[in-house]
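Bug report

Summary: structure tokens for Class I SAM-dependent methyltransferase differ between web form and batch submission.
Environment: batch mode, default settings.
Steps: 1) Submit the sequence below via batch. 2) Compare with the web form result.

Sequence submitted:
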Amino acid sequence: MSILSSDAKDTSRISISAHYTGYVWYRHGLSAPDFVTVAGRVANAALTPINAFLRKVAGASIDTFLLQRHNVIDHLVSQLVEEQGVEQIVEIAAGLSPRGYRLRQKYPQLTYIEADLPGMAARKGSLLKKIGVGAQHQVRACNILEESGDESIAALLATLDPGKKTAIVTEGLVNYFELPVIRQVWARMADGLKAFPAGYYVTDLYPDFADHPSYKYVKFAQGLVGFFTRGDWPLHYPSDEAIRAGFSEDGFAGVEVHDPASFYEQLNLPRAKTATLVRLIRCAV
Ligand SMILES: C[S@@+](CC[C@H](N)C(=O)[O-])C[C@H]1O[C@@H](n2cnc3c(N)ncnc32)[C@H](O)[C@@H]1O
């Protein structure tokens, strides 16, 4: 049963954050100029002094963890394609991320479906049309909070080939929702992925590590994201063990919880001076 009213299901206020991250990917050589928006440039200019302050006092900025999560997700998804034979990827809340564009260049055999709220999906659709991507790369409207109907996760997955191994990816999405709400979404994803010969889910997650040496700066960044997107940005789960247990209860198997620090050498990631703050989860059904 739904625990949300229809007003609470309109989370389009969050979409501004995609302009910010879209510009971060571009500024760090991960994207192309077409993915940049004026709002992204303005938001980045506004946050530059705050990022510099956080780097000085906490040894890492908001962008440090954005770049860590983005690169590690790319790596985990690439492994699914190369080693597990995944042929379909559905990136939900893709925003202005260039991941689909980059992965389709690397793996032309992939079907890549990007999904987001209707406004952002329309914007991304026009952008990809302008770039000229192929028919295997499409954009659809999806609201993760809809349990049924045209914009639900079930409807999105129903448009795919049920004979192909499939992965769902989310990035920068799950901490915009209270844990009981996003857990219902995860359970729907796990359920929907069971229709495929193999189903995987990859996401980032910012945990609530209260003993982190920079916890007061984490709380500051949490307030900043909440202010920027006019809502809450709750941290989820106090430990890697709790993350593993939660995802297992929600219907996933083989839950991996990755610390970006374990990829510092392999992926040439920007480093945080203290412990990292983001986790990458990869699981199967
Ligand atoms: C921080 S942005 C992340 C964008 C992209 N994944 C990235 O990392 O650059 C959050 C995204 O979530 C999308 N979003 C917000 N609420 C959503 C919902 N209920 N269903 C699907 N997407 C949603 C926003 O439109 C936005 O594109």
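Above is the batch result. After comparison, the two runs are identical; trailing whitespace caused the diff. The mean pLDDT is 94. The pocket of S-adenosylmethionine is lined by residues 11, 14-15, 17-18, 21-22, 92-95, 97, 116-117, 120, 142-145, 171-173 (CB under 6 Å).
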